[in-house]
Design a protein that fits this description.
Blueprint: E1 2-6, H1 12-21, E2 26-30, H2 37-40, E3 48-51, E4 54-57, H3 59-69, H4 79-109, H5 113-137, H6 151-164
Parallel strand pairs: 1-2
Antiparallel strand pairs: 1-3, 3-4
């Protein structure tokens, strides 16, 4: 059984979806309820997955760990399709998510309303360009990974959940 450290409406949601799809038992622990969270991940981010004596940090690394460990058809085993699936997960996690992170940071840390709006406007331009990339990828396929929902889709849904709570 796994232990997954999370916070609601964060990227750990994608990991929870993958655990569910793989039919794996897990104990969910809110990061704020863990006395020793910084020992597991000094950066303080979620998700963190504990599997016995292994501690895996970073969303895509956790998802790939699970997919490599358990037989599944959520991601191709090899070849170009697997490469594209990983590329889409990384785009959601390492490109799109930080773009939204700028909005969250400005909302929490920029007190001057005009300056905050300027940051929002600038971020909106960058985010819209990223969504144009996504739209282009979806022109000929219903999901980012092809014809079925799988981890890249979970990563994108995680981005959308976070974005829905943005300013």
């Amino acid at each position: 059984m796994y232990t997954l450290y999370f916070i609601p409406n964060a990227c750990s949601l994608a990991t929870q979806a993958v655990l569910n799809e793989l039919d794996q038992e897990s104990t969910l622990v809110h990061k704020l309820d863990a006395n020793h969270f910084e020992a597991l991940n000094p950066v303080g981010t979620v998700p963190v997955l504990v599997d016995g004596d292994k501690v895996i940090n970073e969303g895509v690394a956790v998802i790939l760990y699970l997919l490599n460990k358990h037989k599944n058809n959520l991601i191709p085993e090899s070849g170009d399709a697997r490469h594209r699936a990983i590329e889409n997960m990384m785009f959601a996690n390492a490109t799109m998510h930080p773009a939204y992170g700028r909005l969250f940071f400005a909302q929490a840390n920029v007190s001057d309303a005009a300056a905050r709006q300027q940051v929002f406007d600038s971020a909106a331009v960058a985010i819209n360009k990223l969504w144009q990339v996504v739209e282009a990828r979806l022109e000929h396929t219903p999901y980012l990974g092809g014809t079925t929902s799988h981890p890249p889709t979970f990563c994108w849904l995680c981005t959308l959940v976070g974005a829905s709570s943005s300013p």
